[in-house]
């Protein structure tokens, strides 16, 4: 294994990486998301054209990716709130796995709904 | 000085996180519902326009986002880009303002 | 396998690994390996140890990428393929070979007000500390730290933020914050909060994962975060 990873290869660390990366990606996505929705205000035709573009399979896949990112950041965040506010218990170390499971379930629900 | 500021930022981050937890559940459920029901954009806008409840909800959601996102990015900028100090905080405040502005326009466009 | 293929860091920060072939023994520890090299093959090798029975923490090194006490690390557990890579602890300046400069580690301990300051004198009666009180149970869970720097060496925030006080110093500050005999507490909270203190912790849990005494500095740091927020909101910070 890559030497830089050996010391970091434990659940808490991966949970951190997922949380931080998903957070940064969502932070970059939000301005675009708001701007597109804002088109409804003054440029409805442009919004319509954009929404038709989102029907493309690649974009739908991207939307699913965003739902996954949001679900992952959300479940990871709940885990952090538990770690920081609840009395310390051994099972809290398993929260990373639980968070990952729930996030995947949510993303799956979205994918299947499509 | 730094201690008090950091403690308050931490508290604001966790408070907005708790609020966002609720908002995100509602938002994700709504998105899954809309996808499942196969609603078109026009149909969605029909349901959201003039809806005071949704307007109120998403306004609260936006407020929480505007607090949570810049504070979250603050740590990333200092640790991974080595960017610390007043310039970083000024840029993040500007980013918060941009988010708030774009978000308000989006809310007006979709719910008013 | 009759021999081990061991690579040991030599020199300072810009040093290199030197290879050795070491006979494999039963129940051999990594400290045994390092000692063998220094006594039988390379007398100039510099390394630290003292008790060699897992009580003092002096022998902490990076073994196959992970910070450990070498006296309590069996070769069988970390080198099933007979290959060992031994380096000094991370996040600390290297003096030579496997020896690091621990001054910054202990300086941060002092900066976090990691020193006990009692209120009573020898003329007063003892302070009563209820062992089953919530505060004392929290202290007891974190008090066994011997300052070995394994957690400090395993923490990425220490690597990313040079001012970060680190898990050991903050953990010790936590035990003192919750100590009913303590006199220095409002100042202590001010010393450990801030972007060089508890608020820089991102709950990676590497410290908790690696601590040879099974302490969880993350738990103590979470306590410091809560205490700092409460104090700030009350205008006491």
What does this structure look like?
The complex is a heterotrimer of chains A (114), B (112) and C (237). Chain A has 114 residues and is mainly α. Chain A has helices at residues 3-6, 11-42, 44-53, 57-85, 95-113. Chain A has one domain (3-113): 3 helical TM bundles of succinate and fumarate reductases. Chain A contains five helices and no strands. In chain A, α2 packs across α4. Chain A starts with a helix and ends with a helix. Chain B has one domain (2-111). Chain C has 237 residues and is α+β, with helices and mostly antiparallel strands. Chain C folds into two domains: 3-100, Beta-grasp domain (Ubiquitin-like (UB roll)); 103-233, Alpha-helical ferredoxin (Fumarate Reductase Iron-sulfur Protein, Chain B, domain 2, Orthogonal Bundle), CATH 1.10.1060.10. Chain C contains ten helices and seven strands. The chains are: A mainly alpha (114), B mainly alpha (112), C alpha+beta (237). The A-C interface holds A 1, 3-8, 10-13, 16, 20, 80, 83-85, 88, 93 and C 62, 64-67, 85, 90, 141, 154, 156, 202-206, 208-210, 216, 218-219, 222, 225-226.
Q: Which helices and strands occur, and which strands form pairs?
A:
The complex is a heterotrimer of chains A (114), B (112) and C (237).
Chain A: H1 3-6, H2 11-42, H3 44-53, H4 57-85, H5 95-113
Helix pairs in contact in A: 2-3, 2-4, 4-5
Chain B: H1 2-37, H2 41-48, H3 52-80, H4 86-111
Chain C: E1 3-10, E2 16-23, H1 30-41, E3 60-63, E4 66-69, H2 75-78, E5 83-87, E6 94-96, E7 99-100, H3 103-111, H4 134-142, H5 150-154, H6 156-160, H7 167-177, H8 185-192, H9 206-210, H10 217-233
Parallel strand pairs in C: 1-5
Antiparallel strand pairs in C: 1-2, 3-4, 3-5, 6-7
Helix pairs in contact in C: 3-7, 4-7, 7-8, 7-10
Features:
heterotrimer; A: 114 residues; mainly alpha; 3 helical TM bundles of succinate and fumarate reductases; 5 helices; elongated; B: 112 residues; 4 helices
């Amino acid at each position: 294994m890559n030497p830089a990873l050996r010391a970091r290869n434990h659940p808490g660390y991966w949970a951190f990486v997922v949380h931080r990366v998903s957070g940064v990606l969502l932070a970059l996505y939000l301005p675009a998301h708001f701007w597109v929705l804002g088109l409804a205000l003054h440029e409805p035709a442009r919004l319509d054209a954009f929404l038709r573009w989102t029907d493309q399979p690649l974009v739908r896949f991207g939307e699913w990716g965003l739902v996954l990112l949001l679900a992952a950041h959300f479940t990871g965040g709940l885990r952090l709130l538990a770690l920081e506010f609840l009395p310390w218990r051994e099972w809290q170390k398993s929260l990373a796995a639980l968070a990952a499971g729930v996030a995947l379930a949510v993303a799956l629900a979205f994918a299947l709904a499509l | 000085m730094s201690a008090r500021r950091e403690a308050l930022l931490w508290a604001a981050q966790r408070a907005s996180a708790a609020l966002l937890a609720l908002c995100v559940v509602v938002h994700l459920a709504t998105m899954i519902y809309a996808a499942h029901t196969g609603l078109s954009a026009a149909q969605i806008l029909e349901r959201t326009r003039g809806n005071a409840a949704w307007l109120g909800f998403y306004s609260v959601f936006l407020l929480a986002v505007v607090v949570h996102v810049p504070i979250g990015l603050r740590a990333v900028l200092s640790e991974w880009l080595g960017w610390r100090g007043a310039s970083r905080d000024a840029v993040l405040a500007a980013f918060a303002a941009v988010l708030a502005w774009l978000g308000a326009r989006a809310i007006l466009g979709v719910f008013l | 396998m009759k021999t081990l293929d061991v690579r040991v860091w030599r020199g300072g920060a810009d040093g290199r690994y030197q290879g050795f072939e070491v006979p494999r023994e039963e129940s051999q520890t990594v400290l045994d390996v390092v000692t063998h090299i220094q006594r039988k093959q390379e007398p100039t090798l510099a390394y630290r140890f003292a008790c060699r029975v897992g009580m003092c923490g002096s022998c902490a090194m990076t073994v196959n990428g992970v910070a450990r006490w070498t006296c309590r690390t069996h070769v069988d557990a970390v080198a099933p393929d007979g290959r060992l890579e031994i380096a000094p602890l991370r996040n600390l300046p290297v003096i030579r070979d496997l020896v690091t400069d621990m001054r910054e580690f202990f300086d941060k301990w002092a900066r976090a007000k990691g020193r006990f300051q009692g209120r009573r004198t020898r003329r007063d009666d003892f302070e009563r500390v209820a062992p089953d009180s919530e505060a004392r149970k929290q202290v007891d869970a974190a008090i066994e730290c011997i300052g070995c720097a394994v957690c400090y060496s395993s923490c990425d925030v220490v690597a990313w933020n040079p001012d970060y006080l680190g898990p050991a110093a903050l953990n010790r500050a936590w035990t003192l914050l919750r100590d009913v005999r303590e006199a220095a507490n409002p100042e202590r909270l001010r010393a450990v909060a801030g972007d060089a203190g508890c608020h820089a912790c991102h709950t990676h849990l590497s410290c908790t994962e690696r601590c040879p005494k099974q302490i969880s500095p993350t738990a103590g740091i979470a306590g410091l975060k809560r205490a700092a927020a409460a104090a700030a909101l009350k205008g006491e910070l």
